[in-house]
Design a protein that fits this description.
The chain is mainly alpha-helical. It has one domain. The chain is 76% helix and 0% strand.
């Protein structure tokens, strides 16, 4: 007989991996490397290959967390907390899938930062509610909360340190000269150390 609880593992892992796939596939249809490579990035920006390792690990942890919460409605302090926890776990997946097409595809960095911060708030809330329902599931979301915090600082730095009003076809040296003022402004408000 079909057991929906067992199917939940495929469901939760699958939708998390599908969200990653949306981001990956969207990258195939835009010239993101020529646009992104010359931009000024935070000194703490990890190498590109790190993202390819971290996101699948986080998606796996979130998928496991989702299934643990899904199969434990009786452990929730109330049905409202249970349904809110499941809803937030699903919302964070939608927000995760949306960020890459917004940031790299549409090059809407301010909207991308908003989506990223909303995802961070959603994931922190999902983590807290999941902890109340099934503590291990809440713990599995902590690394994603940390990673999203880092990602938000990277998004903010790129947004603040680069001038996106000028022609995107400018040479790399012209772009570097234009972006110096953005980095100085970040230093003045204490976002980054002086250079």
């Amino acid at each position: 007989m079909f057991d929906p609880i067992d199917f939940g593992w495929f469901l939760w892992l699958g939708i998390n991996y599908c969200a990653l796939a949306v981001g990956g596939v969207s990258m195939l249809f835009v010239d993101w490397q020529n646009w992104y490579a010359p931009l000024r990035k935070a000194p703490w920006n990890p190498p590109d290959w790190v993202f390819g390792i971290v996101w699948p690990v986080l998606a796996t942890l979130a998928g496991v967390a989702g299934q643990l919460v899904w199969r434990a409605p009786e452990s929730a302090p109330s049905s409202d907390i249970y349904y809110a926890g499941v809803s937030l776990l699903l919302l964070r997946i939608v927000l995760m899938a949306a960020w890459t097409p917004i940031f790299f595809g549409a090059r809407m960095l301010t909207l991308g930062l908003f989506v990223l911060l909303l995802n961070l708030a959603t994931t922190i809330s999902a983590c807290a509610l999941s902890w109340l329902i099934y503590p291990v599931s809440g713990g599995l979301l902590v690394p994603e909360c940390a990673w999203l915090t880092l990602a938000a600082t990277l998004n903010l730095y790129v947004l603040a340190a680069n001038d996106f009003d000028d022609d995107e076809t400018a040479s790399s040296s012209d772009r570097t000269a234009r972006h110096h003022d953005g980095a100085v402004a970040l230093c003045e408000i204490g976002v980054i150390g002086s250079h």
